[in-house]
Amino acid sequence: MRKTFFTTTGLGVLILGGYVSGVTQSQAQEAPPAAPAAPAQAAEPSADPTTTVTVTGKKPQNKIDRQVYDNTKDIDSATGTASDALNKVPSVNVDPTGNITLRGNSNVQVYIDGKPSVMMQGDNRAGALQSMSSGDIDSVEVMTNPGAQFSSEGSGGIINLVMRKNRKPGNTGAVNANVGDGRYNASINGARNSGKYTLSGGLNIRHDVRPSRSGSVQSRLDANGDPISTTEQVGASEGKNDNISANAGIDYNLSDKDQIGAQTSYSRREMDNTSDDTYALYNADGDFTSGYTRHSAVTGPRDDFSFGVRWDHTGALTGETLKTDLRLGRSTGNTATDALNYPTDGSDTTRETRKVQSDFHNAVLTVDYVRPFGDAQMTTGFQITQDDNSFNNTATGPDVLGVPATDNDRLTNSFAYKQTVSAAYMTWQTPIGEKWIVMGGLRAEALDLDTENFGVPGTADDTTSHISYTKFNPSAFATYTLNDTTKLRFSYSHRLQRPSPQDLNPFQTYQDPQNVSAGNADLKPAETDSFEAGYEKSGKVNYQIRAYYRKTEDSITSYSYFLPVANPSDTPVLLTTKRNLGSGEAGGLEGNFDGKLSAKISVRVNGNLAWNKLTTPTTGEQEATTLSGRISMDYNATTKDRFQISYFGRGKQLTGQGYTGPFGMGNMSYRHQYTPKAALVVTLQDPFRTAKFRTVVDTDSIHSESYRSLQGQVFMVGLSYTLGGPSTQKDGDQPRWNGPRGPGGGGGNWGGHGGGPM
């Protein structure tokens, strides 16, 4: 089914005013664009819209469509992972398994430098977030209502990881090394900026060991809600992960008006996870019927590769730009599971194996154009995104240990898909009077998806499908200036949640003897209308208050049921799939505060009071009110010593069949600046041992409660040394170098989209 990239559909090409059109939203100014940013100079590459919003200090700088948080101000940014960095961003939560939510919504897109990345798609994302170094990230942009220049995919919004880039002339670099409980990491990065060109590169290694414990009680219910059978499970696991990554890039100024660049990166993740679980089965009367102990080992590598090229052109008009960007990415993985089952009654030990091979190809072509018209500004562009992916699943057993393995036809299958999304968009921004700046946009997206399912050779299980549709997604933004430091903001966007191609795969995928999963070929995209209104005040003390509301139709949620059994004594198997189950509403009030309590103490506080309602045929109407928040406090004891403590908590979250319980975790850090170039960093993760969470499933046929707790406290010690000329960085800052850019390519000089008007 493999085909050539970029076979375009009807929206594939848009030509406007002699340019292939496009936009970088951060070129739009809060004030009328009569005095826009100056054109790029040969002595210094023009900044990409994504990096023009990098925050100075700890204060978030907000654009009309996003909030920006400076990751370099965290003491432990060089020791942690991307998951750790995101868990310090207001309204963003990453649970211990790597699943990310924004204001409680898990349908979130994660970009790298303003573009989609294959390493942040599907099951790849959790592993990538837990292996990527936090030190590679310059800032985190949160877009709860993205504008028309971004893909409409993701009802919860977009989180953009802006990677570090070198801006200063001359030679710069940094060396970091950290060691802790069962883990270590190290990196070396450097860049040379001559004014005419910039060369950059880096190498990172990371080793993590993550032990955890889990348990569950799962009951199959009859029509009256009474248990037919119950399965109890307790277990312990240890996950070992090794990651190595490298990157290199070049930016070159052809002239005062033209700049080209190229970037490549490679990373390899090795996984070695072991677990021991004990299962006990009980009948309707609560009598023990059977049980077994299961030992499993999951191993396998994943390789990610990316390459990108770009061309930026400054037009004849002040503020007129054309940007062209091509990103290619590939991710391959081979995962092998080997499990032994030891029955408690002393009967034969059985063995099961499973292998999963995945091969993901991703390509993104973007052409952007921005042009002022007096006090107004037009932005327009197109983007073609193509994914060409395949999965191959093979399974054997369960077989008696020592007997030749037999194929498990039910769990042996292949699935392939090719998806092309062709999009064109336009926005128009204009001032109204002296107080208002308004911007409206429309994005048209045409999807073309082909899937192929291959069952066991020689059977009639092979199927193909074709899905195509076009959606029009409007957006609107407005800013009202009350005075120099106070603004009101309003926004609206129409968002989609497309089922992932894996969600469409109808074949069953093995989890363990009691659990399998499968996709649903009949899934439709969920559609969300999102509204926000906010008040913000800036100055010595900064605070924002935002009210939001989302309405979703055809919500895509997990749906679980027990497969039929021949007789009540058989072991029940739970199948989890996806369905369009009803509708959902969510709203809330979010507040942020950032200010100094004294000359040496500063504090950041975020709180979110959220209301959620889900209406489904299986559970009826569910409602929950959740309070979540985080606090971070900095204490600058001396000019060389700095302490930081942070804690976040997340309340109850509805899942469609139940809920996940509250979850929270803290972090403590200390930094000592020995010299202008050398620093010591000490970190204690999860000091209060609260890294545990609980999940409840409660339907007419199932009641299940499960928990998982992580290692707990993790102690890390690190050293950081800046290379190059004399250091001018402030205490706590990290040197800025060109970090790795995923298949989404780099932002900064890479043409990633920035924010709208201030």
Automatic annotation (TrEMBL):
Q: Which family does it belong to?
A: Belongs to the TonB-dependent receptor family.
Bias (Low complexity): 30-56
Its name, as the record gives it, is Outer membrane protein beta-barrel domain-containing protein
Where, subcellularly, is it found? Cell outer membrane
Point to the regions of Basic and acidic residues compositional bias. Answer: 62-76
Composition skew (Polar residues), residue ranges: 213-234
Using the record's annotation, list all stretches that form the TonB-dependent receptor plug domain. 68-158
- What is its membrane topology? Multi-pass membrane protein
- InterPro entries noted in UniProt: Beta-barrel_TonB_sf, OMP_b-brl_3, Plug_dom, Plug_dom_sf, TonB-dep_rcpt-like
The record's section on PANTHER family has: HEMOGLOBIN AND HEMOGLOBIN-HAPTOGLOBIN-BINDING PROTEIN 1-RELATED (PTHR30069:SF29), TONB-DEPENDENT OUTER MEMBRANE RECEPTOR (PTHR30069)
The Gly residues compositionally biased stretches are: 741-758
Q: Which Pfam families match?
A: OMP_b-brl_3, Plug
